[in-house]
Amino acid sequence: MHGHRPRTPETERSRRWFMNKALLAGGVAAMATMTGCSSNSSDTASSGSSAAPSGIPSGGPGGGGGGGMGPGVSQTKYADVVGVTTDGEVVEDLYAIHSTDVSTDALVKAAQTFLDGLSAKERTSCTFDIDADEWTAWSNVDGYVRMGDLTEKQRDLGYALLGRALSADGLARTRGIMKLNAFLGDSNGGNQKTLTEGHYFFTFMGTPSTTKPWGFQYEGHHVAINYFVLGDQVVMTPTFMGSEPTTATYKGEKITLFRPETEAGLAMVRSLTSAQRAKAVSSQSNGNEDMKAGAGQDNLELAYEGVPGSGLGSAQRTKLLDLVRVYVGYLDEGHAEVKMSEVEEHLDDTYFFWMGETEDDSAFYYRVHSPVVLIEYDAQAPLFYKGDTASASPSASASSDGGGPGGGMGMGGGTPSQEHIHTIVRTPNGGDYGVDLLRLHLENDH
Fold first, then answer.
1. Potential cystine with 132: which of 21, 33, 123, 128 (Cβ 3.0-4.6 Å)?
2. Residue ranges with strand state E in 329-420
3. Cα angle for residues 28, 30, 32 (degrees, 5° grid)
4. E strand or H helix that includes residue 132
């Protein structure tokens, strides 16, 4: 439990802490540095900036709604996490320690092999206590052991770990996001370390074990995976994924992301009757940043909105489950089925909510919310993608296959489109980061 470096005020002020502080204080200049869209961007940020927050869109690469900790958002200490609730009151007895009959042996071995492949300094830098506040410090920005700084062999071990934790689709999605992040960097002139395939990080909490609690984070721009393990149980939330653009060709590979999420959402809303639409579809059009449950929102109070599963027909309930399965399907297949069984138990109390139009190419927001799952999909205005390669450097190894209206460097200017999508999956009522499972483990086994 406590075999790692102690948490002191000094160690709590980690590199990531300074990065988030710089973002909150530094306005647009800090955001440009954080996202790599600055000709003199670097891996570090000063903690001494005292400028007032200015012009940072809340859903951007550093924005609170979109994944990072934006203006007015602060980190929740791990000990204070109660999770997303509808009214501040946690629904009790939703989670229990039990056997899933889905082995985590290979996952544990892959994690330990990756850690064994690091140097002592690298391993120490990225390893924390199981209940460390590092869990809630994810910000879609920065971390410790950087993939781009590792050897090819070490990176392969890291991808092998992700391959055990995620499904094939989940791994492909993660790698696709990384590649389109590099495409975005190339299309904005290159030489931006944040906007590369290598600017993604591993952090570990606890020690990989088949019996004791442990977990890891994998994060960077448009990816933040929190993965908790206890025995053969796993919790993979919060998981934030996004991309700008969502379709491009990078190094000869055609990459298209978030089509299943888009199409399953459209299939669900189009299945509703007029009376159901009156409950599910907001009269408000979607804005530029509508996501509620991004980073720094660990104790979010979010009331149910929309049409409940209890008000849906059989075919509609199937479509709702199909929509949830797209997101739960990022998780390895065995544990995804365990989670889907949990979701089905609460299907009557699962709400579907929509903002925006419903055409194939519409930019929209939707939410699926139940006692045990919260999913958000948010189409936003492109921040940096211009929809062409006019600004790409001659050496850029990327080419566009289209693109929507681009906000360019306008920090949120432009029209929301499917070329910039953010998604998040959470486990409400104390499920995120395995908080409730860890509490039960400590109460009953220690």
1. 128
2. 351-356, 364-369, 374-379, 398-399
3. 70
4. none
Q: Write out the DSSP string of 63-109.
A: -TTTTS--TT--PPPGGG----BSSSPPPPS-------S---HHHHH
Among the residue ranges 165-174, 344-353, 387-396, the one predicted with the least confidence is 387-396
Query: What is the C-alpha to C-alpha distance for residues 81 and 204, in angstroms, rounded to an integer?
Result: 19
Length of the chain as a residue count: 446
What is the percent of the chain with per-residue pLDDT over 90, rounded to a whole number? 70
Report whether 129 contacts 7 (CB < 8 A).
yes
Residue 309 has pLDDT above 70, yes or no: yes
In the predicted model, is pLDDT for residue 139 greater than 90? no
Tokens 């309930």 -> residue? 317
State mean pLDDT over 335-361. 97
pLDDT of 46 strictly over 60: no
Contact yes or no for 327/376 (Cβ under 8 A): no
Query: Secondary structure of 179-201 in the HEC alphabet?
Result: HHHHHHHHHCCCCCCCCCCCCEE
Six-digit token pair at 189?
């002139």
Whether residue 412 has pLDDT greater than 60: no
Q: Could you give the 3-state DSSP secondary structure of residue 233?
A: strand
138 CB-near residues (< 8 Å, 6+ apart): 217, 219, 224, 226, 238, 240, 295
73, β-bridge pairs: none
Whether the pLDDT of residue 262 is over 50: the answer is yes
Q: Which two tokens stand for residue 338?
A: 């365990």
Those residues whose C-beta lies under 8 Å from the C-beta of residue 414, and which sit 6 or more positions away, are 381, 382, 405, 406, 407, 408
Residue 14 structure tokens: 């980690």
Among 229, 235, 239, smallest CA distance to 208 is for 229
